[in-house]
Design goal:
239 residues, mainly alpha, single chain
């Protein structure tokens, strides 16, 4: 049941979209098709991802004010009331980022799965109006996307590093550096900035160049989106 739903709503539409794009690209270059399909999906998700990034940025700016509320000596009920009033004033929701990410996950996984299974257009999964491309060129800039590519894998890891670099960083209160909150925050930042890019590099290399190219395109798009939102939120002043 779930497998059929996954194929019908997510997997098959992406496979067919990729087949259409390859058909229209001169020489049937799959690399260009992967980039275009990834950009189309990321563009369609802009309303969701933009709100998520903006929410993260605003939460970062609000952290000093939230810390003041916690240190005010008010009871838990009054603290919660003041905090929600702050969220309402600056039109942000601490859970909106998580909800939007969960909405995007099935879409991103489906796109990832298309490349993970390999670029193999089977007539059984193509719609009646979609034909198998007359020419399929798996080489992109001299790299075989059907095989492992160390260069693309390293670039995928590097792009993941820059995505983590431009993510809003939480402002943790200065308590001497030994609090659980500070230690946990530093650990998460370290993993997102250094460990996760290494993991992405390893996975991208173990699978295929197409997966690495997908990750590079997706991450670069997100980096520019984060830079744009960060610049926009620089003018936000917390009273």
């Amino acid at each position: 049941m779930l497998h059929n739903l996954w194929n019908s709503i997510l997997y098959k539409p992406f496979v067919n979209a990729l087949a259409l794009i390859v058909s229209f690209i001169p020489g049937g270059n799959v690399g260009i098709a992967v980039i275009l399909l990834t950009l189309l999906v990321k563009t369609a998700l802009i309303p969701l991802s933009r709100r998520s990034i903006e929410s993260q940025s605003k939460m970062k700016l609000l952290e000093p004010e939230i810390a003041k509320i916690k240190a005010s000596g008010l009871n838990k009920e009054e603290q919660a009331k003041k905090t929600f009033e702050l969220y309402k004033e600056y039109k942000t929701n601490p859970f909106s980022g998580c909800l939007l990410v969960f909405i995007q996950i099935p879409i991103i996984l489906a796109l990832y799965y298309v490349f993970f299974k390999g670029i193999d257009f089977n007539a059984d999964i193509l719609y009646s109006f979609v034909h198998i491309p007359a020419k399929i060129n798996m080489y992109f800039l001299g790299i075989d996307l059907a095989s492992k590519s160390l260069i693309l894998a390293i670039l995928a890891g590097a792009s993941q590093f820059f995505q983590a670099y431009y993510m809003p960083k939480p402002n943790t209160p200065d308590t001497g550096g030994n609090s659980f909150q500070e230690s946990f925050a530093r650990s998460m930042q370290m993993q997102m900035k250094y460990v996760f890019p290494i993991l992405i590099t390893f996975i991208a290399y173990r699978i295929s160049g197409a997966i690495a190219l997908y990750w590079i395109t997706s991450n670069v798009f997100t980096v520019f989106q984060q830079i744009h939102v960060n610049k926009k939120n620089k003018n936000l002043v917390i009273k």
